[in-house]
Amino acid sequence: MSFESHELLGRLAEGLRREIAPAVDGEYLRTQAHMAAVILERLAREAALGERHRDAEAADLAELASGLGEIVGIDGASQSQAAPEEVRSALARLQDDPEVMSLGPVVEALYSWGPERPAAAAALEAIRSVLRRDIDRRMDIAR
Q1: Rounded percentage of the chain residues whose pLDDT exceeds 90
Q2: Considering the entire predicted model, what is its pTM?
Q3: Which has the closest alpha carbon to 133: 71, 59, 79?
Q4: Which ranges of the chain would DSSP assign to H, the alpha helix?
Q5: Secondary structure of residue 79 in the 3-state scheme
């Protein structure tokens, strides 16, 4: 009988919580055993959800990276309405390295350009929705 890593970690956590922690003498050591069970439970959830979350993050960022150029007017905009070079280079870096951490320079560039501009505001709103979904996925593990 073979177990997936998340199942094995979950079983270890359950054993620590139900069998080992109650049998340990001393309040401090019992607390440490319970905390080890909590950590194992979190690792089990992360292992179970990790691949699905990575796939969802990659899809969100690919869609965002492809759509931001259009939103801020890089694709086909007149020179007077197009985003400045700072925004263009930040978007290019995002397309080269599509990770949540790569959104920081894009957000900074959009705020430097002016969040009151309709294109920048729309781009920031699109980024917020991707970040909200990222937070929700992280909270899914923490529950």
Answers
A1: 49
A2: 0.73
A3: 59
A4: 5-15, 21-23, 27-71, 85-96, 103-113, 118-142
A5: coil
